[in-house]
Amino acid sequence: MLVESDMLDAAVVGQITTDLLATRAASIAVMLTLIAARRMDLDKRLDLARGTSANPRRRALILLMLWPALEPCEYTKSAFKRLLPDNHPSLAWVNAGPRENAEDALIDDLGDPAICREVLSWLNPGEAKS
User: Which of 15, 88, 111, 114 is the most buried if burial means most Cβ atoms within 10 Å?
Assistant: First the structure.
């Protein structure tokens, strides 16, 4: 679905909101976050990330916006990092382009268990994801 997100109408992508990410199943929230990270302009992504950072059950979604596969620029990375706890260990891991599988404990303070599992399923190295 992520590969096909380029075909989604901008109006559909624009309907991805903080409230939508907060109320959908973890697997859906993760996919919507990846679509937003890939398709929204920086200002809209930042607004979405700011709202998400205020939700302790979904904060891990911000890590997806830093995923190296999405090729965020330095400015973007810096802006999103400020929305997470200072010196959070997950930031170094994501910035390094995750080469080792992370355990749930690395991000368990960034969301509920279901959202953390889904985020790690995308960020942990392994098979190509699309």
Answer: 111
Structure tokens at 100: 């080792």
Residue type, 106: L
Q: Which residue has the tokens 């979604």?
A: 61
> Could you give the CA distance from residue 24 to residue 73 in angstroms, rounded to a whole number?
28
Contact status, residue 8 vs residue 35, Cβ threshold 8 Å: yes
Q: How far apart, in whole angstroms, are the C-alpha atoms of residue 16 and residue 19?
A: 8
The rounded distance, in Å, linking the Cα atoms of 33 and 118 is 11
pLDDT band at 4 (very low <50, low <70, confident <90, very high): low
Q: Report how far residue 93's alpha carbon sits from residue 96's, in angstroms, rounded to the nearest whole number.
A: 5
Q: Alpha-carbon distance 56 to 65, whole Å?
A: 17
pLDDT in tens, 87-122: 898 888 887 776 778 888 889 999 999 999 999 998
DSSP H helices in 4-88: 10-13, 18-23, 26-39, 42-53, 61-64, 74-81
